[in-house]
Amino acid sequence: MTEIQIQRFFGRIERLNLESKPSFGKMNVNQMVCHCADFYRMAKGVKKANEYGKINPNDIIAIAKTGKSVPAPSGFGQTEGEGTTATNLENDKIILKQHILEFSNFTKNYKCAVHPYLGEISNKRWHELAVYHLNHHLKQFGV
């Protein structure tokens, strides 16, 4: 992510509050923030999915292109209790921003983890997915 993208995302994250409601989906705002942080944990290999390769990558890409929500990989479903447990919104926003900064500072040679749907993907592709995923969920909560 560029510095401008980071600052824009941080501004949007700061506009989230406990009254923020989703326009779709079942997660509350705090769960969404933790879900987004889990994306970065997945990229680093700190949090792993329960299953890999069960869904055809072309199906996932087709779903994403329609604008519909892509199902969370097994082990990352917040409403199912699989994701990182929320603490309090302000603290979880700080943690999310820390993950974004760390991820954005990965060198081009940094080897990200295997993606549960897409398999081995480049660092560049992980960054594209990070922007797409974070933007998707911030829009979900109107910021």
Would you kindly provide a brief summary of this structure?
This protein is mainly α and about 140 residues long.
Could you characterize the architecture of this molecule?
This protein is mainly α and 143 residues long. It has one domain: Four Helix Bundle (Hemerythrin (Met), subunit A). 50% of the residues lie in helices and 0% in strands. The protein has 5 helices and no strands. It has helices spanning 3-14, 29-44, 57-66, 89-104, 123-140. Helix 1 (3-14) packs antiparallel against helix 4 and helix 1 packs parallel to helix 5 (123-140). The longest helix has 18 residues, at 123-140. The chain is globular, with a radius of gyration of 14 Å. It starts with a helix and ends with a helix. This is DUF1569 domain-containing protein.
Please give the number of β-strands: 0
Report the span from N to C terminus: 18 Å
Just give the CATH class.
Answer: Mainly Alpha
What structural class do you assign from the helix and strand content? Answer: mainly alpha
Number of helices: 5
Please give the CATH architecture: Up-down Bundle
Describe the sheet with the most strands: none
Strand percentage lies at under 5%
- Average pLDDT number: 92
Regions with pLDDT < 50 over 5+ consecutive residues? none
Sequence of secondary-structure elements: HHHHH
Percent helix range: 40-55%
